[in-house]
Amino acid sequence: LSQVALNDAIMIFAFAPIVGLLLGLSSIIVPWATLLTSVVLYIVVPVILAQLWRKALLRKGQAAFDNALTKIGPWSMAALLATLVLLFAFQGEAILQQPLVIALLAVPILIQVLFNSALAYGLNRLVGEKHNIACPSSLIGASNFFELAVAAAISLFGFHSGAALATVVGVLIEVPVMLLVVRVVNRSKGWYERA
Prior knowledge:
- With 195 residues, this protein is an all-alpha fold.
- It has two domains: 1-60, no CATH class; 78-194, no CATH class.
- The protein has eight helices and no strands.
- The longest helix is centred in the middle third of the chain and has 36 residues, at 62-97.
- The protein is globular.
């Protein structure tokens, strides 16, 4: 079971209860049907479709699978960038008008990403995992899966909501910090392999 598959499995079973708990603590009521629909639409359906497509491609051979990945790679990046552009377009004014709120949202996200990536990297080293496994592990461990957060925030609360603003701040922090994590784990390969 890959790390991404394990994360998807955890999100399928844990996302709705965790969101329900956190929203309940904030006295925000979202029907369970809405939370479960979000899980089905944004996690279960894409995972099932991706697995079906993967199996269909692999039946045609590894070359067909690799060729398809090469062709869709630029499209997935373009879709991600388009999502970010739209989010910033809708939330740009709020970001500029509320710098203190942005800072209050940014600090815990920054700490969480750095702590989780360092923890994952260090634990991989401690258990003797290879560097080429520890690097993606530290990135996956630090990821907030903002794509899911963005989809859920917009579908539940709308483009102009505080929840959507928080996901934008998450992207603003997570993306550059993840690039920093990539740089650190690549530059620390010598230290990592001395263990």
